[in-house]
Automatic annotation (TrEMBL):
<keyword id="KW-0472">Membrane</keyword>
<dbReference type="InterPro" id="IPR051539">
    <property type="entry name" value="T4SS-coupling_protein"/>
</dbReference>
<keyword id="KW-0812">Transmembrane</keyword>
<dbReference type="Pfam" id="PF10412">
    <property type="entry name" value="TrwB_AAD_bind"/>
</dbReference>
<dbReference type="GO" id="GO:0005886">
    <property type="term" value="C:plasma membrane"/>
</dbReference>
<protein>
    <submittedName>
        <fullName>IncF transfer coupling protein TraD</fullName>
    </submittedName>
</protein>
<keyword id="KW-1003">Cell membrane</keyword>
<keyword id="KW-1133">Transmembrane helix</keyword>
<dbReference type="InterPro" id="IPR019476">
    <property type="entry name" value="T4SS_TraD_DNA-bd"/>
</dbReference>
<feature type="domain" description="Type IV secretion system coupling protein TraD DNA-binding">
    <location>
        <begin position="11"/>
        <end position="71"/>
    </location>
</feature>
<dbReference type="InterPro" id="IPR027417">
    <property type="entry name" value="P-loop_NTPase"/>
</dbReference>
Amino acid sequence: MLKKDGKDSDIRIGDLPIIRDSEIQNFCLHGTVGAGKSEVIRRLANYARQRGDMVVIYDRSGEFVKSYYDPPSIRS
């Protein structure tokens, strides 16, 4: 239906597109251990990186730091 109405984004969660321009809003992912929350965050971050967008991830465990933290790009 989103595609039919022209409201689908190129960003997807699984096979489902999100609403165009909603990626600038907040997302909350909730699920049990092993449900795939981190994988969804990785895919969203990769979409944003491909588009040249910036992402802020609150990462208490440091899981995403080695993959996504790039200090030189922050300074430029």
